Every structure is written in structure tokens, then in C-alpha cells.
Amino acid sequence: MLQTYRSPSVQVGEEESLHDVPYSAGQSPQQLLVTVVGFIRRQWPIVLSGVSLTIALAAVYLFTTPPLYTGQAKVLIDTGKVEVFQKSILEDAGNLGMVDTQLEILKSENFALSVIKSLNLTQDPEFVGSSGALIGRVLNLLLPTKPDSDPAGHSDPERRAVKLFEERLTVSRVGTTYVIEIGFQSVDPGRAAQIANAVADAFIADQLEAKYQTIRGATAWLQDRLNELRGQVSAAEHAVVEYKSKHNIVDTGGHLISEQQLSELNASLVKARADAAEAQARFARISQILRADDLNPADKELETVTDTLHNEIITRLRGQYLELSQREAIFSNRYGNTHLAVVNLRNQMSEIRHSITDELKQIAEAYRSDYNIAEAREDSVEKSLAAAVARSQTTNEAQIELRQLESAAQTYRALYDSFQQRYTDSLQQQSFTMPEARVITRASRPLEKTSPKSIRILALATIGGLALGLGLAVLREISDRVFRTSSQVEAELKTECLALVPKIKPGKIKPGGKVPSTGTGAAADIPTSRIIPPNAGLYRQVIDSPLARFAESIRAVKISADLGRVAKSNKVIGITSSLPNEGKSTIAAALAQLSAHGGARVILVDCDLRNPSLSKELVPNATAGLIDVAINSANLEEVIWTDQSTKLSFLPVVAKSRLTHTSEILASDALRRLFDRLRSSYDYVIVDLSPLAPVVDVRSTSQLIDSYVFVIEWGKTKIDVVEHSLNAARGVYDNLLGVVLSKVDLNQLLRYESHRGDYYYNRDYARYGYTD
To answer: How many domains does the chain have?
Structure first.
């Protein structure tokens, strides 16, 4: 690598600048701070551009995105249960999973469709129209979505409305409570509150419908079971009655007919006849009531019968009928005759009438049976004396089976009564269903928009832009492999940076002056035909603006060249660079002009044989030059041009055709003898050489040049190119006087070398007469 070679004549300072040193793990906090500050100073335009870009994009987004307002309603899930079978027939609302289930119901597509249809949102442009946001339209244009299949058969407006509805709807649980918060976003604040309330109301209605359907199913099942139990009760009771009738069993308090009954047969016969008459009368009375066309449980006649009979079932049914009748009257006046609750009450009243009728029929049958039994008993009493002994054993056996039949009948009756009660309760719940959720906070018109959040978006855009800018700045810093500071030159090339030559703006280049009169003396001996015309402003900048920073930088190069004479002869100084257009010719001319202006004998030699740009600029009318002297076709004195104001001599190159063996010309003995002659005749021989990278000519000049000044264009020439060029020209590097950074932008330089800010401060320059 180039860093392994070091010219003995180069003296690099022992201390490195703390500024712009790349970060390493061994840096002190002060060095790290300086490194970070230097990085920010260099790359702040990139960082600022990134932040500005993201803020601008955020501003465009905020400007083109319509504001959204959020209406919020809150619904409470009650933890009560619907008791039908002594336990809830619905899922326990107190279960935490139940709340999550309700959240999923609110998010379901069917629920969204119900709200959309109820509010007719398919006709709302906000739900079926295109997005009003510019960014949304651009994204839809760049990323078109394929039309989804519609398995449910919904129309496209409906599908778009559902999609937007689901995007705008937010449902969440409030902490660990049973409260569900419903939010909906809309461009219209009133519309947002309306839809949020509609969602809450639809949720309550859905809860009511689900509960009603559940209770209705349970009621239907209870009704079927009651019908079944009614038949079983009737069959069991008829079996008891038939069995008693078949076996002529009369209840005597659990005792068998014994011998003592024989003495009481006459009294029993009288009583049996009275019982038969009474049973006949009861049976006739209830038969008369059953023959009526319309049985009304409120009739006095029925009340008389029930009071006489003391039947608890009929009494309870009549009480229920009267209660339902009162509620039916109240509900009819309040809700109308066609209301579902009124219809349900009437149905219940009808069912109670049927139940009373059935009960009366059963009682009538019991009366009939009692009447038959009484008659049979009367006959039995008459015959009992004769058959008492014969039937004694048979009666005992029949009572055992009778007890089994009576036990079965009582069991069926108790079960029937229990289901009858539950059926009645379910009918009441079905007629007056209470929801398991209620709205505790209705949505009101929002006063402020909820999105887009301007402050948050701008803050995120600023942070994102800062990250983007820093990323680009780091990338630029890493990829910025060019020379920008003197410390870079010293670190990478292990040589001294002689000067930083500022870039001269075209507007500050002074035009050349007039050619002064020859007058008398030495100047009068110069042929006027070989006087350099004073119209090349940039090449005469050190003369036209001697107090500018450009001229001060050239003085720094001259001082370094003069100090180099202490170690060795340093008359012939070659100016070269890696690539063309790096400013080497300008610096060569400026160094020569400055040296000549100080009174020294100076000759400027153009040795860029393939592209003699200096000769074309200074003496475009020259007809002979260096090559003619080298081949002895012209004398040196006949081809030298002179700048009359500074007495600078200039040896141009005139090539009538493209030269191919320029390196052999530069390495020839004739050219070496010419330079020996120039070295003896002048104090300074400034040579403008060709660049190193395109051609190899400079490598052939090691026998001609005492020291080289290497020109690098600031902020443009790659470090790799310079290292490769100097590695390929070891003779140049070994005799390198130093490096000059040309075309330096002093304003940008302060970002890379902050310690030079005071050095290049205009006010300090002005105190010593320097101007730009």
C-alpha cells in the first residue's frame, strides 16, 4: 500500500488534529464529541433534507386526507341470569369469555350488514364512493386490488360498505370490566355519533332477539312435555279409578273389612245411598257447567263449584287467569290489541281456560266415578255381608296393587304440576323479555377530529426524517472517498498538505489588463511578438488580486518549495495531478507568476505534450516551443514568451499533430540538457506536467524534476485513484514536495475542518488587507 512508503524529505506533524477523526473504540469522550459534531457539521444539509422531505410528505398527507371523527358509545353486559329451569338457559354473562364472544359478534359481517341496511349506508357516498384522500387514490392506482368473489351474493356497493364499516368500527373491552366501548369513525361528526349509537342499539336488539328465541324454544319444549305428562297423569288416575271400580275397593282409612263391619252394614248402606245421591248431584252440577259454550273462569257459578270442591289447581289457574286478564287490559290500552305481548297474554289466558276445562272434566270424571262407586258401594254393602268372608283375601291383595297405582298417579301429578309452573314462568318471560345488555353512555357529536393526528404525524415524520437523513448521511459519509481535509491527505498519503487553494468563482475573475508599453531598458529588448497577452484572467489571479486567499494559498506552496531547498536542490518543480481538469495548470501558472512577481527569475514550462492546455490558454498564437528546441529546430531564446508585467518566461508546447511517443521525448538526453540549461539560467523552473492516470509521461521526468507538487481537486478526486496513481509512479512519490488541494469550497470546508474557520475568517483577513 501507499502508506508503507514515506519520502525522507517529508516532515509530517507529530500531532493529529482532533477534528474529523473517524470514530474508534479508544476515543475519549472529548474526541467522540468532536467526531459527532464534525459529522453533523458536514452532513447537516442531508439530514435537514431528509427531515424536510418527510415533513413535506406528512403535510401533503394531512392536507389531502379528510379528517375523521369518532363517536363513542358504551354498553354494559349485565351479569344476571334468565331462570327457567332453576338455572340460566343462556350462557353466563359473568364469564369473561362471554364478553369476548360479544366483541366478536359486534365485529361480525352479518352484524355489520344489519346496521348498514338499517341506516341505508349503501346510499352514502362515504361508504360506497372512492376515497377522498390523494394518497389513497394514488395507492389504489398503483396497487389495484383484484375483485373478491362474493360467496354471499352481496352487491359490490354492499361489499364496499361492509369493508369500510369494519375498518371504521372499533370495539374493545374497558379494562377488566363488563363494559364494551363502541367507536366509529366518519368524516361527518354527526354521522359518527349516529352510527355508533345505531351499533349499540342493534347490539341490544340482537341480544333481545337471541334471548327471545331461546326462551321460545324452551317454552315449546315445556309445552310438549306438559302434554305428555298430562296424558300420563290422566292415565294413572284412570287406572286407579278403574282398578278400584274393578275390585270394588272403597277407601276405609287403610283398614280391611272385618267382622266388626258386619254390624255396621246397615248404617253403611244408608250412608252409601246418601253418598250416591250427593255424588249424583255434584256430577249433575259440573256437567251443566261443562255443557256451557264459553267457559269463563271468572263466572260466579264456577267460583261456587270451586269453593265447594276446594280444588287448589283450579283456584291457582283462576288466579293466574285473573292476573293475566288485568295485564292484558293494561297492555291493550298501552300498546294496542295487536302487540306481541298482548297476543301472548291472550294465548296464555286461552291455555288456562283449556287447562281449567280439562281439570273440570277430570273432576267430572272423578264425580262420575264417585257416583258409580257410590252406587256400587250401595250394592256392595247389600252383598258385602254374604261376600265379606269370601272377598277378604282378594281385597287384601288388591290393596297392594292399588297402592302402587296411586303412588304412580301421585308422582305423575307432582311432576305435571312442577312443569306447569315452569311453563307459566317461561310464558311470562317470553312476553316480557329483558335484555342482558344496556347502553350506559350514548355517543354524542365529537368536537375534535381523531385522525389524522397532526401533531403525532408531524412528530413521527420528523423522527422518521431524522432517521432517514442520518442514514443517508452515514451512507454518504462512508461512500465519500474523496479528499476534503489536510488531515486526510496526511493520513492517507503520508505526505504534507501544502495548501488549500480556494475555488475562484467566475464572477470574481478579473479580466486581464492592457499590455504595458515597452519603454526602455531590459523590457525594451523583448520582442513584442512573444509577449504573453494579459487576457487570461484566471492564470493571472495572483497578480490581479494579490491580497486574495487564492494568492495566499499559492504563497504557502512557494514557501514550502523554498524551505525544501535546505535539504536538496529544488529549482525545478513539477506540477501534476491524477486526472485532467484538477487545476494543476492554473496552480503552475499562479506559482510561476507569484515567484516572478517577487523578483526571481522564473520560467514556466509546459510539459503536457499531449494536451498543452496551458500553451493554448496563454499563447494560442505560438508557432514553436519545447519540442522544437528538443529536436534542435529552434533556439531556446526564439521560443520563449514573456509576461511583461512580471518578467515571467514561458516555454510553450506547439504540437502540429497528435504525438504518440511523448514519454520518450521527456526521457531524452536533449530534454535533460535543456533542463540543465534552464536550471542554471533561472531561479525557479515551474513545469506543468500531464496527469498521472491517463498517460505515463510523468514517470519519465524523474531525471528532469527536483520536486513534485501533486494537485488534487477538493471533494471530487477519489482517494483510490490518487493512491493508485502515486503507487504506479514511485519516482514522483519519492520526490513529492507535498499535495495541494485545489478548487476548495471554503464554505463547505468548514463542515469538515472546523478548526480552519478562524483561519479563513474574512474579518481576520481584512485586518491584514486581504480581500476576496
So the answer is: 3
